[in-house]
Amino acid sequence: MSRRNPSEVAERLHLPPEAAARVRGLDGEAPPEPRLPPYAEAPALLDRLAVAPRDAAEILAGWPSGDWPPELGWLLGKVVAAVRADLGGAAWLVPGPSLPRDRGPAWRHFYVYAYLALLNDVRAYHARHGVPDDVSWTTLADLGRNLAIDRRMNGEGWPVMLQWLTLHVRGGIYELGRLQFQRRQTPESRALALHIPRSGPLTPGACDRSFAWAREFFPRHFPDEPYDEVTCGSWLLDPTLAEYLPADSNILRFQRRFELLPGGEDGTEDFLRFVFGTLATPLDELTARTSLQRAGLAHLRAGGRWLNRKGRVALNGRP
Fold first, then answer.
1. N or C: which end of the chain has fewer CB within 10 A?
2. Contact 285, 306 (CB under 8 A)
3. Per the record, which residues fall in region Disordered (predicted)?
4. How many CB atoms neighbour CB 80 within 10 A?
């Protein structure tokens, strides 16, 4: 595709101000053509990525084609090139603008197409590091999980995941059993970042196995990145939960693994997103069905808030 004026691209796509400003900040060079999988192979691939049939049907309906505005195709190339340029990176990356999702499947699933276009790159990266196929595909199948969350949240979930899923297609994160571990070595820290997907009970046994796996996995596949601890930042580490949950609850047993660090920030939005699957429903209209939901709602209705607290635990030795 020929060189384009980013301001014209933003104008022709009729983007909201914030998105338009991000597009105007791009250079006008023609990006490489995104290497999407063949359309005929897409259904099987989406199934392997745990994408639900309804979501898969929408993705296929909006598949990049000659019907796309050329400016949208240009932007897709730019986004894919930006992520590909940071292959192996593990920091947060926002590769493009947040697009209006009410314009149809092509717009709603724009970043899915970017994800699919990067699969060959990250699979090759995994292979170079000896990452087993089962870990590779399990990690990448977080796509389907997040699309399902977004659907349950009526579209409120995906914007947050725009940068989150760039970790997966850059080789920055790995799902090892119940938990996900993000490579995040810096000159100041040799700590893996821990993430807790919505994939079942957070039992002590499942967490023990994930930590044991991580202790073996990273020295084997990333020997040049020595990690000595794991950090976690989450509302799950808010000590206030102990006022509402039984001492033997999985969440409190998970908390006790960590040395809690000072400080914290408001995590109420994260709590509502992950526990109730909504950000738009008023508190007095929420229905609590689990002990965690009842605890969380009681605290919020009493005027409290939930904090994202950070904790750390040594990677070597039993967590």
1. N
2. no
3. 1-37
4. 26
Q: Which residue pairs from 25-28 have beta carbons closer than 8 angstroms and sit at least 24 positions apart in sequence?
A: 26/78, 28/3, 28/4
The C-alpha atoms of residue 150 and residue 144 are separated, in whole angstroms, by 10
DSSP letter, residue 246 = -
* CA distance linking residue 205 with residue 257, whole number of Å: 13
Three-state SS annotation for 48-62: HCCCCHHHHHHHHHC
The structural domains of the chain, ordered by start, are 1-171 (no CATH), 173-319 (3.40.630.120)
What burial letters (b/e) apply to 276-295, b meaning 16+ CB within 10 Å? bbbeeeeeeebeeeeebeeb
CB atoms within 10 A of CB 70: 13
How would you classify residue 14: left for phi > 0, otherwise alpha for psi between -120 and 50, otherwise beta? left
pLDDT along the chain (319 residues), means of 10: 84 94 90 92 98 97 93 95 95 92 94 97 98 98 94 80 92 98 82 93 95 97 94 95 93 95 92 89 90 90 93 77
Determine phi and psi for 289, rounding to 5 degrees.
Answer: -115, -20
According to DSSP, the β-strands at 229-234 and 191-195 are parallel
- β strands within 196-277, DSSP E: 229-234, 259-260, 265-266
CB burial class (10 A; 0-12, 13-18, 19+) of residue 209?
A: middle
DSSP-based three-state secondary structure for 230: strand
CA distance 250 to 159: 29
Neighbours of 102 (CB within 10 A): 8
